Amino acid sequence: MGCIENKSTPAANGPGADFNAFEAMQPRPPEKTPMDRRNGKHVKANDIPPEGVYLPNNNFQAPHMVSPEYVQLSTAAAITLGIMGGRMHGCECTRCLNLLLTYPEGCRANCAYCGLARHREADRDYADRNFIRVDWPAVPMAEIVDIVAKDPEASDFHRMCISMITHPRSEDDTFTVLKQWTDKIDPEAIPVSILSNPTTMTRDDVQKTRDLGADIFTVALDAATPEVFDRTRGKGVQSPHKWSKYWEVLQDAKDIFGTEKFGAHIIVGMGETENEVLNLVQELVDMGGHSHMFCFFPEQGSLMDHLPATPRDQWRRVQLARYLIDYRGVRVDQMRFDDLGRVKDFGLPTGELDDVINEGVAFRTSGCPGKFRDDISACDRPYGDSPPSDIASYPFQPKKKDLKKIRRQLDIPVHVES
Length: 418
Ligand code: SF4
Hints:
- The chain is an alpha/beta fold.
- It has a single domain, classed as Alpha-Beta Barrel (TIM Barrel), CATH 3.20.20.
- The chain is 29% helix and 13% strand.
- The chain has eleven helices and eleven strands.
- Strands 4-2-3-5-6-7-8-9 form an eight-stranded mixed beta sheet. Strands 1-11-10 form a three-stranded antiparallel beta sheet.
- β10 and β11 (343-349) form a beta hairpin.
- α3 runs parallel beside α4 (170-184), α5 packs parallel to α7 (243-257) and α9 (312-327) packs across α11.
- The chain is globular, with a radius of gyration of 21 Å.
- The relative contact order is 0.15.
- The structure holds iron/sulfur cluster.
- Iron/sulfur cluster binds at residues 107, 109, 111, 114, 116-117, 165-166, 233.
């Protein structure tokens, strides 16, 4: 069919490996947390009242901050909101206000790749933990709403997202935070997404987020197969999540929010094959939803911090193929894979594939859309899955030099027009 084929065939594991195979991606087991560090005990016992913005600093005792009065927000959102100084490589701002519920006892799950996981209470207060490579300052929710409500139409933010964590108060506090937002900010001006925690949610909870004005509902499946899920966020690491419950809530989201208004987060490179993750992408599209992709990065302090980041060639192949399935109508069964599950043919004629690569959008961060285009995510998560020196998800439109690098990583050495 005259398609571009990926020609490289290095070994599956070890030096020169061009993908993270299942056998190579075993998390280390969590250690026991001393009694006096469990459940945020010392933060609650010291009961230091919070004052305004709290910037993570592991040398201090974190104050006693609790949602819904307090939420954490990404460093990029704090810079964009003007409550923190700083610059981001290649970006003037972020387009998504990512919020995270906060409690001294933190998330009660123990996901192996996550900086917020429960085992970290042994050495770091919840409010001081890194998450997707960055710090998350804590801020009174009312202060955030007041800043954005001054002129929502003119805001840099194209979307707001509430990230739930695994905590008994997570649902009720999500409703309160959502209502606090929609009481003062028209969700038509800045739509809201929910990044859910299925483990403690019912179908009624999903419905309530819709009734309160949420626009998109996402499920952080994170793992692409039941085996990887169980190993990284279930029994394998003493964590409570179940693959079946995540799919149940995903189905609820499909029913309640409807086509194009639900999706799943997937981390690429935790031991699944490219064929497996792209079949999942196709399944989500066939349901009427989207996939939001993250490149595995060994988060400092996590149970997978000793493991390799996803090789860029694996990541680029999946990133490109996922974009073709999600936005260009290509089906996974039109693609060809080798016996290790790697993409060998993207299922498009050479010229068409060249055009998609050269446009660059396929390599931007994926997530819920903003106000530019349906296939350009508001949730740009600057450097959430890579350092700026070796970008995985581009939080900006890739330039010519970026596209040349991307083509080298894809092993598709076609001339980029100048
Ligand atoms: S449930 Fe979410 S926040 Fe909690 S440890 Fe797992 S990935 Fe991290």
